[in-house]
Amino acid sequence: HSRGRRPSAGCTLTGPRASGAAAILIPGALCDDRVFAHQRQRLGAHGTIAVADLTRRDTITAMASDILADAPPKFTAVGLSMGAVVAVEIARCAPDRLKGLVLMDTNLAPARPDQIIQRREWSAQALNGHLTDVVRTHLLQLMTSARGPLDQIVLDMAHSVGAAAFVRQNEALISREDMRPILPLLNIPTL
């Protein structure tokens, strides 16, 4: 369980008046609301912004369902990496709820066998107390190109998310469907 965060049954949207959010920002694995700090600052002038918490479920479908349960009737889904996979699942399940869809730095293909093996190894290492090593050795270069100044923020987010949530997120990514065929079927403004 992550430090300083209260557990809940499902997805928690953070931000002022989250149920009336104009946009819901959906972070990637090992990320929390800090990954969107600058975007929240800038976009906040255009409407209420909420950030989804993807730490409590182990499937993309369950993560999407939790967000839909807490979201306003209409919103824009903005997903980063794993969050973009969740955003596409939201679009598949409830396209009428979306005003728009933004997908950033993502891979909508199913996990390859080598990725499944790697993610399972990372999960085992994290559960054995080596989350920091996994992040430093394997994930920092995947999560940011601005090495140095952002390393500590990524490490801090990873520790807040915690090893157990990281394992759940890995399971969601391992078991994800191929989301690519969904995109051409959507009639939603998409970036």
Total of DSSP H or I helical runs spanning 4+ residues:
6
- State the low-pLDDT regions, or none: 1-11
Q: What letter string, H or E per element, gives the SSE order?
A: EHEHEHEHHH
Q: Calculate the terminal CA-CA distance, rounded to whole Å.
A: 34 Å
Largest sheet: 4 strands, parallel
Overall number of strands: 4
SS content category? alpha/beta
Mean pLDDT rating = 87
Over all CA atoms, what is the radius of gyration? 16 Å
Q: Taking strands numbered 1, 2, ... along the chain, how are they ordered across the largest sheet? A: 2-1-3-4
How helical, in percent, are the residues?
A: 40-55%
Envelope shape: globular
**Fraction in beta strands:** 5-15%
Architecture overview:
By secondary structure, the protein is α/β, with parallel strands linked by helices. The protein contains 6 helices and 4 strands. α4 crosses α5 and α4 (113-143) packs across α6 (163-174). It is globular. Mean pLDDT is 87; it is low at 1-11.
What's the short version?
With 191 residues, the chain is an alpha/beta fold. It has six helices and four strands; from the N terminus they run E-H-E-H-E-H-E-H-H-H.
What keyword list fits this structure?
191 residues, alpha/beta, four-stranded parallel sheet, 44% helix, globular, disordered N terminus
